[in-house]
Amino acid sequence: MNQEIEALIELQKLDISIDGLKNKAKEIPLCIEKTKTDFATKNTNLENLKQELSEVQLDKKQKELDLHTKEEERKKHQSELNKVKKNDQYFALQNEINQLGKDISVIEDGILNMMDAAENVNTKIKQEQEVLKQEEGKLGQEIDRLNGELAAINNSITAQEAQRREIAAKIPPDSLHLYERIRKSKKGLAVAEVKKNNSCGGCHMTLPPQVVNEVRKLERLVVCESCSRILFWKGE
After folding, report:
1. Which of 166, 162, 156, 71 is nearest to 111 (CA)?
2. How many angstroms separate the CA atoms of 203 and 230, rounded?
3. Contacts from 47-55 at CB under 8 Å and sequence distance 24+?
4. Angle between helices 87-168 and 3-81 (to 10 degrees)
5. What is the DSSP code (8-state) at residue 172?
6. Cα distance between residue 154 and residue 170, in whole Å
7. How far from chain centre, in Å, is Cα 157?
8. Angstrom distance (rounded) from CA 91 to CA 161
9. Measured between alpha carbons, how far is 147 from 73 in angstroms, rounded to an integer?
10. Is 44 helix (H, G, I), strand (E, B) or coil?
11. Angle between helices 173-185 and 3-81 (to 10 degrees)
């Protein structure tokens, strides 16, 4: 195998590696964003619980105002009860007082239920805050890990691109241009091995005997008539 073909094969190996690293580098910011979004969703759950608690507290406050109004009204009627002289007025006031007592009892039960609900929501809030505290620590660690991985990948890309420049400098400009053109059109695979069954390693089409012979002579670059990839013979 001549030096030009060897350089092209090595160049392709590096290009495939560099392309893979660049694809990984593109994925990492997406992973970081997803990690942040997942945490934000959990934080939203906490905010929803706080909103729920606020609504319960507002309802409780309203019921307490209603309770105060009913109690004041009952006191007023009880005061009036001793002043009325007619039986029908007395019984009417007594009925009002009894009804207010029932209303007050219902409101008091509602307030107790809301106190229980508020306590339950508060418990959930504390639990969620504890979970979020732990998750926030994990979030920072995961982002640091991903950023570290990205930095390592970028360092590898830089190192391999430097190697690529050294190898590319050894390849004749026309051959390098041919390689680059094929690589662009064939999704990164510009150089293909001639398999033992005399087929192209790129498109798997059977190669004419004269083409295989030309490849084995190593006198010039030979391309596959089907896919236009540069062919090489690895040997027995």
Report:
1. 71
2. 12
3. 49/121, 49/124, 49/125, 49/128, 50/125, 52/121, 53/118, 53/121, 53/122, 53/125
4. 170
5. -
6. 25
7. 25
8. 100
9. 68
10. helix
11. 40
* Separation of alpha carbons 190 and 178, rounded Å: 9
Structure tokens of 208?
């004419």
Going residue by residue through the chain, which has 236 residues, state the pLDDT in tens, using 9 for 90 and above: 589 999 999 999 999 999 999 999 999 999 999 999 988 888 888 999 999 999 999 999 999 999 999 999 999 999 898 888 888 999 999 999 999 999 999 999 999 999 999 999 999 999 999 989 988 999 999 999 999 999 999 999 999 999 999 999 999 999 999 999 999 999 899 999 999 999 999 999 999 999 999 999 888 999 999 999 999 998 65
* H or E stretch at 191: strand 191-193
Pairing assessment for the beta strands 191-193 and 230-232 based on DSSP bridges: parallel
Tokens 């508060």: give the residue. Answer: 122
Tallying the residues shown for the chain, one arrives at 236
Spatial CA neighbour of 112 closest among 67, 71, 52, 70: 67
pTM: 0.67
Show the domains of the chain with their CATH numbers: 17-170 (1.10.287.1490), 172-236 (no CATH)
> Could you say which DSSP state residue 225 is in?
T
Tell which phi-psi region holds residue 230, choosing left (phi > 0), alpha (psi between -120 and 50) or beta: beta
